[in-house]
Amino acid sequence: MKDIFNIMEIEGMEFPAGRRTRVLVGDNGMTAGEHFVQGYVVIYPGGSVPTNAHAEEETFTILSGSGKMILDDVEYPATALDCFFVRPNVPHSICNTGDTDMTVMFVYAPKKIADHWAEEMEKK
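-> C-alpha cells emitted (124 positions)
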C-alpha cells in the first residue's frame, strides 16, 4: 500500500462496457483507507458505466470529455468540472457520447467493493 502515488501507476480493470477503472483508495485500490472509496475512470467513446444502484452515496466529477449522466431515468449533460451527487439507492449510469475519452473521478461511502463490477465482468 502506498500513500503517495500517480494514478497511472495503477493498472486498473478493463470493463466490457468500454472503460478502465483504477481504484485509488479502497480495499482493491492502491491504498486501503478506512471509510470511503475513490477511483478514476476513463470511459472510451461510446462506453459507459451501466445502470446500477446501491446503498452507498456517491459522487461523480467529470474531469474531461463529455457525455450524459442518467439519474433515476432523468438524463443530464455531463461536461468537464460537472459534479453529480447520487443519493443512496438511486439508479444511475454515465455514458461517453463524445469522440474523445471521458475521464471521471468517483467517490463513495461507506467503502466496499462495488457489486455491479463483478456482475458486469461475468457478462463478458
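The chain has a mean pLDDT of 94.
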